[in-house]
Amino acid sequence: MQNKNKSELNIERNLCQVNSNISKACKRANRNTDDIILCAVSKTKPLSDIETALSCGQHIFGENYVQELTSKYDVLGDKAEWHMIGHLQRNKVKYIIGKVSLIHSVDSIQLAETIEKESAKRDLVTDILLEVNIAGEDSKFGFTPESTPDAVVVISHYPHVRIRGLMTSAPYTEDPESNRLYFRDLRKLFDGIGRLNIPNVSMDILSMGMTGDYEVAVEEGSTMVRVGTGIFGARDYHI
């Protein structure tokens, strides 16, 4: 049996710890662990790290950049489930349709239109989340909470796009408790839209919570957390 190197051992240990933390957060919130999906954020990380996580049972990986996502897809293909979680430019949509299972970062009706057109060309239905700038940060993309319900209605008419829910990136903070109110507000928005029973809108995925605050997000109703550093370690952006 091949001995595991330090990086492999770290990823294995970190994955166990993250899943344990999710389970504990579920217990505190009276939730079922099976209702939480872990998306491992693998941006800037090598294929070997993804393969290690796959060997540990992690199947869903989130990428921020189209070129990096497609290059990893070209090697691993459907061995992994790929999610686009970063800002997506309309002129790059065509490169990921049919390769990603979910686009988290749909931040405009125009982007949804482009996804509709590219999906129609391939006779596919693409699952998406609408990104909501729940904290109103100037540095973040996304719909305002007030504009989100109307955007859902407009996009729901696109036959090759299916809205599965909402996503947000809460403010970076040293204190995860400070993001609790944002997660709570997005959950209310999510639930409210769900009660409208809009055709072609399932509203079953609430993607919120990252390495620094995913436990609080789970306590406040998140169904999908996006954890990168907590699994793969700090990133080297100078590679």
Q: Any overview of this molecule?
A:
The protein has 239 residues and is of the alpha/beta class. It has one domain: TIM Barrel. Helices cover 38% and strands 18% of the residues. It contains eight helices and eight strands. It has helices at 6-29, 47-55, 66-76, 109-121, 148-155, 180-194, 214-219, 229-232, and strands at 37-41, 60-63, 81-84, 102-106, 126-131, 161-167, 201-207, 224-227. Strands 7-6-5-4-3-2-1-8 form an eight-stranded parallel beta sheet. Strand 4 (102-106), helix 4 and strand 5 form a beta-alpha-beta unit. The chain is globular. The protein starts with 5 loop residues before the first helix and ends in a 7-residue tail after the last helix. 42% of the residues are buried. The mean pLDDT is 95.
Nutshell version of this structure?
This protein has 239 residues and is of the alpha/beta class.
Defining traits:
8-stranded parallel β-sheet; 8 helices; 18% strand; alpha/beta; 239 residues; TIM Barrel; globular
Strand order of the largest sheet: 7-6-5-4-3-2-1-8
Helices and strands, in order, run as: HEHEHEEHEHEHEHEH
Number of domains: 1
What's the CATH H-level superfamily name? Answer: Alanine racemase
The DSSP helix count reads: 8
CATH-level-2 architecture: Alpha-Beta Barrel
Structural class category = alpha/beta
Number of separate strands: 8
Measured by DSSP, the beta-strand proportion falls in 15-25%
Mean pLDDT over the full residue set: 95
Question: Measured on Cα atoms, how large is the radius of gyration?
Answer: 17 Å
- Which CATH class applies here? Alpha Beta
First-last Cα distance: 31 Å
Residue stretches low in confidence (pLDDT < 50, at least 5 long) are none
Shape: globular
Stated plainly, the CATH topology is called TIM Barrel
